[in-house]
């Protein structure tokens, strides 16, 4: 099932980069060459989710679901749950839907247990409005997000964490694998340098077979686009507080979450994990 909400001009601008990458069929091929340990982050998120008390009939919300890496893995791991996948880029969701159908079977019934929603999470101002738009009367067992929230402004991040808290049931989990900056400027500079050097190495001399098959000139152009995206579209904020500015751990705590942890971190990437 798929639905699509209207988008503002700002949202259209936000999705431009991913629209182009989806149209070129490049996102899935190159993202592993952009974020160090990208696949591991998704596997670790699944490991954390599998240690939750997920029951048949439960529902999980995937925010910024992209091409379906987490959504499809969750549907396969939990054969009697429903996954709601929100993403603001329609071409990316078309890839998600295609992959969903390719992985489907009469036993798994993946498409039947999946709802794709084409919208921007920042368009919702309360958990009630989000649940209502999804046609749900009960909260989610978990809210999962992978490499999406770093595109939001600081106030939008805080709103996302409040939304996540409001749509979760008591004991429900928030799992946010994402890019985070550091409160310490030197650590932040070194982390960004590490990630950019990772990209340069992976695009110029790829370790991944898929990336290696892309002609060298195309790889150089893609590298330039990704580096520009890192500098122009990423809005990284630290997990720690910086003076009077709340870090993302404080945002999560202020939203009402408890048992907050950072079980994984490497350079700019990390996983923020909390319970309601």
What does this structure look like?
The protein has a single domain (2-182, 235-275), classed as Rossmann fold (3-Layer(aba) Sandwich), CATH 3.40.50. 45% of the residues lie in helices and 20% in strands. It is built from eleven helices and eight strands. Strands 1-4-3-2-5-6-8-7 form an eight-stranded mixed β-sheet, sandwiched between helices. The model is unreliable at 2-10 (pLDDT under 50).
Describe the protein's topology.
Elements: E1 2-4, H1 9-23, H2 27-30, H3 38-50, E2 59-63, H4 69-77, E3 82-87, H5 90-103, E4 114-118, H6 127-133, E5 140-146, H7 154-167, E6 168-179, H8 185-204, H9 209-212, H10 216-232, H11 248-255, E7 258-266, E8 269-275
Parallel strand pairs: 1-4, 2-3, 2-5, 3-4, 5-6
Antiparallel strand pairs: 6-8, 7-8
Helix pairs in contact: 1-5, 3-4, 6-7, 7-11, 8-10
Summarize this entry quickly.
By secondary structure, the chain is α/β, with parallel strands linked by helices. The chain has 11 helices and 8 strands.
Features:
276 residues; alpha/beta; Rossmann fold; 45% helix; eight-stranded mixed sheet; disordered N terminus
CATH superfamily: Vaccinia Virus protein VP39
Strand order of the largest sheet: 1-4-3-2-5-6-8-7
Give the count of structural domains: 1
Helix content: 40-55%
Largest sheet: 8 strands, mixed
Distance between the termini: 28 Å
What is CATH's topology name? Rossmann fold
Runs in which pLDDT lies below 50 for 5 or more consecutive residues are 2-10
CATH class: Alpha Beta
Task: Please provide the count of β strands.
Answer: 8
Radius of gyration in whole Å, from Cα? Answer: 18 Å
Determine the number of helices (DSSP H or I, runs of at least 4 residues).
11
Average pLDDT number? 90
CATH architecture: 3-Layer(aba) Sandwich
Secondary-structure element pattern, one letter each: EHHHEHEHEHEHEHHHHEE
Assess the beta-strand content as a share of residues: 15-25%
What structural category arises from helix and sheet content?
A: alpha/beta
Global outline: globular
């Amino acid at each position: 099932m798929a639905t699509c909400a209207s988008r503002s001009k700002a949202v259209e601008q936000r999705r431009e980069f991913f629209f182009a990458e989806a149209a070129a069929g490049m996102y899935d091929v190159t993202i592993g060459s952009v974020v160090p340990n990208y696949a591991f982050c998704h596997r670790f998120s699944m490991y954390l989710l599998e240690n939750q008390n997920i029951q048949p009939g439960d529902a999980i919300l995937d925010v910024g679901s992209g091409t379906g890496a987490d959504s499809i893995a969750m549907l396969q791991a939990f054969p009697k749950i429903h996954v709601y996948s929100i993403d603001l880029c329609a071409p990316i969701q078309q890839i998600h839907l295609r992959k969903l159908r390719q992985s489907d079977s009469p036993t798994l019934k993946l498409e039947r247990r999946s709802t794709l929603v084409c919208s921007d999470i920042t368009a919702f101002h309360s958990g009630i409005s989000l649940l209502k738009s999804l046609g749900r009367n009960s909260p989610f067992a978990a809210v999962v997000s992978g490499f999406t929230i770093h595109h939001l402004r600081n106030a939008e991040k805080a709103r996302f964490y409040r939304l996540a808290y409001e749509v979760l049931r008591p004991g429900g989990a928030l799992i946010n694998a994402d890019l985070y900056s550091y409160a310490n400027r030197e650590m932040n500079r070194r982390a960004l340098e590490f990630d950019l050097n990772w990209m340069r190495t992976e695009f110029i001399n790829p370790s991944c077979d898929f990336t290696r098959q892309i002609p060298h000139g195309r790889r150089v152009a893609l590298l330039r686009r990704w580096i520009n995206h890192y500098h122009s579209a990423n809005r990284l904020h630290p997990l720690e507080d910086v003076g009077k500015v709340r870090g993302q751990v404080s945002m999560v705590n202020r939203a009402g979450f408890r048992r907050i942890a950072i079980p994984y971190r490497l350079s700019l990437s990390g996983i923020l994990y909390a319970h309601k």
